[in-house]
Inverse folding.
């Protein structure tokens, strides 16, 4: 029998994950990285997890045909020994398999049943197809990101991973705390529309205060402010400038050798275009790395825009171990960090239902 030694604050927590794509596996990765034992139930014939399957790392995989007559009983036996279940199917799929909340909680009344979809389990769009950008379009998040001319999807960070997977991880762990205190499990309904709306809380607050214009690139944090934007350097690289506070803005102008008296006031929105032009012209005179030498040790809030190839090798990231390379594949290391129970990328393997049930008692 396999002996598993894990580290992390979730050591001892058992999670059953029904295989899917995108945000559900990312949630499973987060839980595994922090020590949870995550068993992924996948279809027969599915390929083994490869080193480049970053979001699938750290699990043991069990292949089951969920349409077979004995699969339901096997799954329920595993669920009965689990703390958390996560799934990312459309509403009704788990119910049709006979593995919905009613059956799962009957088998394990303390179970946390986490389910994540784009639109949620209820509502007019609940059964409609969609992807990340559709979900964040409905919450207002997509409208706020992009150029003046058009919204631009912010990768799938805001919906799938931020509004979906992170809220699923947060939700199931909150429900686990309740279950351990009361013995009562429950269903956690995670919708990416809900999560991405929640992530926009500060912007909705700014809007209510009259501090946020409902137009892209016209606000402090959307590239509208010249001191919170990206600028192209002489070598084609980019600088990220985030000099919001007056003292940081002063340090920025000093490093760029721009006389502040020749510019409009920092907060004169109507003349931000002039400041944009001045900063852009100055940045374009040197390479990205030359500018980083200028701003080294200052509080100008300037950082290099690193490529995915560069980021793992930046001295700060190397010093903190922000990235790791299991199997020779650069990828983010477990986060966040814990002083007493550090997380780690766990080994993965394939096992049988018989072996798992024997191990789990």
């Amino acid at each position: 029998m396999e002996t598993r030694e894990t580290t992390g604050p979730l050591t001892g927590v058992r999670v059953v994950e029904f295989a899917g794509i995108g945000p559900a596996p990312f949630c499973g990765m987060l839980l595994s990285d922090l020590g949870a034992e995550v068993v992924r139930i996948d279809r027969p014939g599915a390929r083994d997890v490869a080193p480049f399957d970053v979001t699938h790392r750290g699990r043991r995989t069990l292949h089951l045909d969920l349409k077979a007559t004995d699969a339901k009983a096997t799954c329920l036996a595993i669920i009965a020994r689990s703390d958390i279940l996560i799934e990312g199917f459309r509403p009704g799929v788990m119910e049709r398999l006979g593995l919905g909340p009613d059956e799962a909680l009957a088998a394990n009344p303390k179970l946390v049943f986490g389910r994540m979809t784009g639109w949620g389990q209820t509502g007019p769009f609940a059964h409609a197809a969609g992807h990340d950008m559709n979900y964040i379009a409905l919450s207002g998040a997509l409208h706020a990101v992009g150029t003046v001319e058009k919204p631009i999807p912010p990768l799938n960070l805001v919906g799938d991973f931020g509004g979906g997977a992170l809220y699923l991880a947060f939700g199931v762990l909150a429900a686990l705390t309740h279950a351990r205190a009361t013995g009562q499990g429950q269903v956690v309904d995670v919708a990416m529309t809900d999560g991405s709306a929640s992530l926009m809380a500060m912007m909705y607050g700014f809007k209510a205060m009259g501090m946020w214009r409902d137009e892209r690139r016209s606000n402090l944090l959307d590239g509208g402010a010249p001191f919170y934007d990206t600028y192209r350097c002489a070598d084609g690289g980019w600088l990220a400038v985030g000099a919001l506070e007056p003292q940081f803005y002063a340090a920025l102008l000093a490093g760029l050798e721009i006389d502040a008296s020749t510019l409009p006031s920092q907060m004169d929105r109507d003349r931000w275009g002039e400041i944009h032009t001045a900063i852009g012209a100055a940045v374009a005179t040197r390479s990205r790395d030359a500018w980083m030498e200028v701003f080294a040790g200052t509080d100008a809030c300037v950082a290099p825009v690193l490529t995915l190839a560069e980021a793992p090798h930046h001295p700060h990231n190397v010093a903190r171990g922000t990235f790791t390379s299991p199997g020779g594949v650069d990828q983010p290391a477990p986060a966040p960090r814990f002083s007493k129970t550090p997380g780690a990328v766990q080994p993965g393997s394939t096992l049988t239902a018989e072996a798992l049930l024997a191990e789990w008692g």
